[in-house]
Hints:
The structure is a homodimer of 333-residue chains. By secondary structure, chain A is α/β, with parallel strands linked by helices. The first copy, chain A, has a nine-stranded mixed β-sheet with strand order 2-1-3-6-4-5-7-12-11, sandwiched between helices. Chain A has a three-stranded antiparallel β-sheet with strand order 8-9-10, with no helix packed on it. Helices cover 26% and strands 23% of the residues of chain A. Chain A has helices at residues 9-18, 38-49, 68-73, 88-92, 99-111, 145-157, 197-222, and strands at 26-31, 60-65, 123-129, 135-140, 162-165, 181-188, 230-243, 255-257, 274-278, 285-286, 298-300, 314-326. The termini of chain A are far apart. Chains A and B meet through helix 2 and helix 7 of A and helix 2 and helix 7 of B.
Amino acid sequence: METSSQLDPVALRKIRRTNCNSPLKQVVIAGGTHGNERNGVYLAKYFMKHPKLVQRPSFKTVTILTNPAAVKANLRYVEEDINRCFYQKDLMQPSNSNLERKRASVLDAQIGPKSGSVPKTDFLFDLHNTTAATGVALMVPYDDKFAIEIGAYLTSLDPSVRIILWSNVPDWPMFASVGRSGMTFEVGPASWGCIAPAEFIQSKRLLLSALDYIEAHNQRIKQSNTSTLIKKKIEVFQNVHYVKYPRDENGDLIGMIHPKLQWQDWKELKDGQPIFAMFDGSNDTLFDSSKYEPGAIYPFFINEAAYYEKDIAFMLARKVTVDVNMTPLQSKI
Amino acid sequence: METSSQLDPVALRKIRRTNCNSPLKQVVIAGGTHGNERNGVYLAKYFMKHPKLVQRPSFKTVTILTNPAAVKANLRYVEEDINRCFYQKDLMQPSNSNLERKRASVLDAQIGPKSGSVPKTDFLFDLHNTTAATGVALMVPYDDKFAIEIGAYLTSLDPSVRIILWSNVPDWPMFASVGRSGMTFEVGPASWGCIAPAEFIQSKRLLLSALDYIEAHNQRIKQSNTSTLIKKKIEVFQNVHYVKYPRDENGDLIGMIHPKLQWQDWKELKDGQPIFAMFDGSNDTLFDSSKYEPGAIYPFFINEAAYYEKDIAFMLARKVTVDVNMTPLQSKI
């Protein structure tokens, strides 16, 4: 018999996704995956102090700090970005090469494993912040119908919430991929090291509502009730590309996000629109839509602090429509 | 004969300020005093690559990175905040106890010394960013008439520019205090690690205009011309107090800047206005003006990332009027 850990990530995910028709038993809320993203850190700490708030009758909720050392230092990470340490292949050959790799192994054992068809955690909310004006942006695996369903519920409560599908690749290194199902719960703009207050209140409300939805979902499954499912079509974003910064021959920045593009996440980017302003005030760089397939295109993660080192000035998305089947639930937001 | 280095800081400053009636010979523009305040870092790097831009006929301009190790690490500081390492007494008994103390000694020798009545640098622009929505906020020593004069000129060009007087204490530990005259050129909001583009363009323009003003000032002095001086009264802010975060008995945060106070820097804070929202959604903390002397009071540095560790939620200022004598100059902004 082939054990699930020998399966490739795509085949394994197929099994995991099928299991989503069974009730969820454990939900994890994680803050501090990046230690300087303080909305997530303080929301997780708050839930840890008030665990009853996140309990629901039919499942257990565990709140954790993903990278306490990075939280303590108020840094994105100490040695390596832990949110890039969760490839299935890396977790199956655990390396203790640095603080974050060690912590990733511990977490995988504690709430996963990612290589298991039935991990301990059925849903993982991983709380992040960005310096870009994304609002609440739920980043979900493209093949994770249940995560999209939760996203659709939150969008119905708060139309400012957006859903973004992770790229269609065989595996992802993000922490949220350790659960049977999960999402990276991005909120911006928030500066490194700061709590963005309105976004904190909004995130808290949305997370508690998401738990209510999971409870309703569990109850419906226990009653073997599929007749009440509501079929919906929703619009989501699909990440398709990214744009690099203007640099000189030594790799030094010679320009920056154009003031007219700053804070314009999710607003359609039109051909000829300025995207970069040069430090020397010379000609702006204009968006050249002919580089891409025709159709409306939307920038996001504009001026995200952590992406300077990855040389990503902003990302580009398309709108796509997906079908979801939703458990009916009186909204309580 | 008493050497100037034996003088107390206040007496020494009196001598230095008198020297301001002689022409300026050297101006220093410093970026990266805090390594993660990227507007200043990239503006300084840009001037270092294009030195002609900051040269003027009658004086020399030197652009430097204050803390290159912190810039490289994209951190406020490596071991200690260097912008607290420039007390005259500390510089006169140099300590090599950490990276920043060592660097402070090097800088003091290179462009000061602070203990000299005639330091090598006549004016020091120290470029900073804040995560608070301060706009351009020029922080100047309360007794530095020439710095206030430059601020007044910049305010006349761009009415969004504000001048804030440093507290009346015997000495300050800030880098800008090493020059004969100087200012901390604060710009916000900008997230740690990010370039705020509109603010970058504005800062560049203002700095070049400030250099033009210094040139006009030098020319006027060389012509021994005081008859053309324009007498003005300007309104500036005086820092008077700061407000701490709400915390539990363990010192953990239990609340945050109120969403209605976020981004409201420099807007009069009225009695009863909410200043903190609690994580648990319980009663907001309201501003109690009876704790302070009567009169209008203005919050600033609201939600500055670096001030969480100093337990400063925001600062409070009063408006005061000061007299300035200005060299006439055709504005060129």
